[in-house]
Amino acid sequence: EVIHANTFPHFTKSVIIEYDEEVAWTHLKISIRDCRALRSIIGGQRRRSRDDGEEEQQRIARKPFFGLGGIHNNNTDDHDDNSNYCSDSDPIMGEVDVEVGELLKSDNGKEQKFELSTGGTLFVFITESIQGTDRGVLDCQIRGLDVKNIESGLLGLGAVDPYFVISKKENDTKKGTTCYYDVYRSEHVHDIINPFWKPFQIDLERLCNNDVHKQLKITVWDQQDRGEDRWLGEKDTTVAEMMRHVAKRGNADRESALRVEARSEKGDKIDLRALLVILKADVISANRKMMANEGSVVICSGRFDTVGVMIENDESSR
């Protein structure tokens, strides 16, 4: 998975691996690399002014991607075309060695922090892959309506470049905390308030632990060329709710759409930031497309789900 121009990436790529409790030893090497192949392409698309310093240009050029055990874990779910540019020759930004059994038995909870030898921090989340009763692949497409531009530019002519992220809720009983881990990120669509995002497919195990009633969150963001992307709003939902709200009156069905909202700090005001029209949300048989491109990733019983890999700079807090 490649995330462009971001030194604080939240990777959505998850990897399902085989783990044998009797052997109790499964070693993973996780590598963060700087994807160089896109530099000339991105550079041609984005003309930076002469006032930009070298440090700023280098920051924009960084494109970290996540690799596991020498396997290219590219986003084969067709929403990250940049992953095709990954190469073993790309420089390593940092590596960590993870022993699955030790992490699962640790008193520190499901998420652990690893210091990178080259600077920065990697957070790795590993948990047992819960086997629910709902099996298959979610075949989905979402359209946005009336995406609000909350920070217009000069003379009110600012643009919004929206994308959405789906996260699933996880409870860490050891830490007594609840977190959301990103499991899918759409492409961003440039300068539009009514975007059509690409269709996508994701298996239910990665998305919702095979439970269509498991709580998810859809967050809408405004992509920024520089600095952090702008949060617009979010909607708590489930796969079951998405299936119930599939549009019945065309691709502008506001009545069936999910409401993306932002609450004030006091919680007394709610601002509608966007409507999400669910154009399709079907659970299809796992045999029709189930991970045909996964290559070396093992899909079998007794699996564990590795998600939510994050990297942060030494100077910054998480």
Give an overview in words.
This protein has 318 residues and is mainly beta. The chain contains six helices and 15 strands. The strands form four sheets. Strands 1-15-6-5 form a four-stranded antiparallel sheet. The longest helix is centred in the N-terminal third of the chain and has 8 residues, at 54-61. The protein is globular, with a radius of gyration of 20 Å.
> Main β-sheet, in a few words?
4 strands, antiparallel
Q: Tell me the helix content.
A: 10-25%
Q: Report the average pLDDT across residues.
A: 75
Rg from alpha-carbon coordinates = 20 Å
Which strand order spans the largest sheet, edge to edge or round the barrel?
A: 1-15-6-5
| CA(first)-CA(last) distance | 21 Å
Number of strands: 15
Coarse structural class? mainly beta
* Shape call: globular
Q: H/E series, N to C?
A: EEHHEEHEEEEEEHEEHEEHE
Tally of alpha and pi helices? 6
Low-pLDDT ranges: 44-63, 65-81, 289-311, 313-318
β-strand amount: 35-45%
